[in-house]
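ok new one. same drill as before - structure tokens go in, u give me an amino acid for every spot. 224 of them this time. try not to just spam alanines like last time pls lmao
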């Protein structure tokens, strides 16, 4: 009789242990959700797949009227080589999923290791004041090797604005206004609160995902 009780006790204990381990691992594998408003921020820089948003150029009719089902938020640093390397993947997501996806760009310059990252973010905000954020965004990544290690990149940044057809005097005024740095810092503050500590960092509908999982995460979100 004692042996039967002992056997039952072992079986029950094993079941409890297995269930406990399963709960621990299921909790670890569940993606962490974050405060949606903080992830999205002011949504100042939004590009909708298929040509909508504030990306410049003429948006398709479907993109103009679309309500995206997935928000892909990117915290990025213009001087970061990994951020530049991720751009083809981001563009592929927008191309493949079209107007069901919106890209929200947020600044997170790693000033401790990238000496010109903050200046580049400020320049992009200055270009935004003149309606050319995404064009300037693309230029900064494309020409990253030109300006990244300059002692003073401002001349290059003004040159890029001029090449895009922006009024260089007005651009310079925005560049020197001090307001642009405040906009960048808002993104950095939100990023810190969200646990961002590297770039690029991506969120898909408020859930942090690794850059290698972005495409799959967007596809899953669209199938939910």
């Amino acid at each position: 009789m004692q042996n039967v009780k002992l056997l039952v006790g072992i079986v029950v204990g094993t079941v409890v242990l297995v269930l406990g381990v399963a709960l621990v691992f299921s909790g670890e594998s569940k993606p962490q959700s974050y405060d949606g408003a903080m992830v999205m921020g002011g949504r100042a820089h939004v590009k909708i797949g298929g040509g909508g948003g504030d990306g410049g150029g003429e948006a398709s009719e479907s993109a103009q009227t679309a309500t995206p089902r997935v928000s892909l938020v990117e915290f990025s640093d213009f001087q970061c080589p990994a951020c530049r390397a991720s751009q083809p993947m981001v563009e592929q997501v927008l191309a493949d999923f079209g107007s069901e996806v919106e890209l929200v760009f947020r600044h997170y310059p790693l000033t401790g290791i990238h000496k010109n990252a903050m200046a580049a973010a400020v320049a992009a905000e200055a270009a935004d004041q003149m309606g050319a954020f995404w064009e300037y965004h693309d230029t900064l990544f494309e020409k990253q090797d030109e300006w990244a290690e300059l002692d003073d990149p401002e001349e290059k940044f003004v040159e890029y604005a001029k090449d895009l057809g922006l009024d260089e005097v007005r651009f310079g005024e925005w560049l020197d206004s001090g307001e642009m740095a405040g906009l960048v810092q808002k993104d950095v503050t939100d990023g810190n609160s969200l646990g961002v500590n590297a770039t690029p960092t991506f969120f898909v509908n408020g859930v942090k995902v690794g850059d290698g999982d972005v495409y799959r995460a967007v596809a899953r979100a669209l199938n939910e």
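The CA atoms of residues 108 and 189 lie 9 Å apart. and btw Residues 14-29, 55-64 have pLDDT under 50 and may be disordered.
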